[in-house]
Amino acid sequence: MHTKDEVIEIVRLLEEAYPQAVCSLDYLKDYELLFSARLAAQCTDARVNTVTPVLFERYPTLAAFAGADAGELEDIIYPCGFFRSKARDIIAAAAMLLSEFDGNVPDTMEELLRLPGVGRKTANLLLGDIHGKPAVGVDTHCIMLSNRIGLVDTQNPVKIETALRNILPPELSSDFCHRLVLPGRAGFSAKKTRSKNFCIAAPCRVAVQ
Fold first, then answer.
1. What confidence score (pLDDT) does residue 185 get?
2. What's the rounded Cα separation, in Å, for the pair 141 and 44?
């Protein structure tokens, strides 16, 4: 594991290498990120971004989503996989947002987890990107890289979230998790470093191949 100074240096190097810590899902409204994140489960963000322009044009409001015909919605989101359960969750979440939250995505973990189809990863994404709150979204890249660079020693997402909350500066935690996606996609594997230029190899004492 790393000292506090080493963790700060890792955060700094990632920020230097990947200054734009942004969500790769396209959205304009808070609930659009919620629905896009649901579609992204076991699907790539890139594919979701090809589906959502049609989806958000067909259903331009929460009320439209809440009143959507499930079959029609399923046809639109079919390329994202698991389209029946995702359509069901989106329609139900839209109805709940309207009936219980005045049409707004809530800003607490407890309330977000009540929404159909929302787990801790999505809830953290919404807390960080919509509400600007400290958040640790643990996806596959975060699991792989946080272990590989020695920040954690577990594959359990909840334990990783807790561990990272304890060592990361709270105001930087959401951006840190976004930044881990980029080297993960670039091929920094769980078993070896594939890039000689991987920005945090030195402070993490990772052997560069």
1. 65
2. 13
